[in-house]
Specification:
Blueprint: E1 17-21, H1 26-37, E2 41-46, H2 49-62, E3 68-72, H3 78-90, E4 97-99, H4 124-129
Parallel strand pairs: 1-2, 1-4, 2-3
Amino acid sequence: MSKKWQASDIPSLADKRVVITGANSGIGYHAALKLARKGAHVIFACRDRKRGEAALARMEADSPGLHTELAILDLASLTSIRQFAAAELAQHRPLDLLINNAGVMAPPIAWRRPMGSSFNSVPMFLAISRLPHF
């Protein structure tokens, strides 16, 4: 039987840039932690500034000196998506890895109906979880 994959199998990611949507909690946070520990510069693309800053502080306390930053990205807003993309493009630096982690689970009933969102009145949970990544 082959050896099970472990985070220690991740090669060095020095000089690699990574964007993770929803990196302030859950799988996104742990992916960011593992990749940053391997040397990647990880950009936490988060909707909520306070939660993003708290996640960065938690990571710094756990593993000081990692290369991380916070970028505000609200996937329910086309304006926010365009601003984030423009800021990334303006840096003229390659993006090596994009992890589309953000989404909503078990959205409230109200979110399942069209809400006049930026995405031409599609249900909000679809607008957040699926459409922005394309």
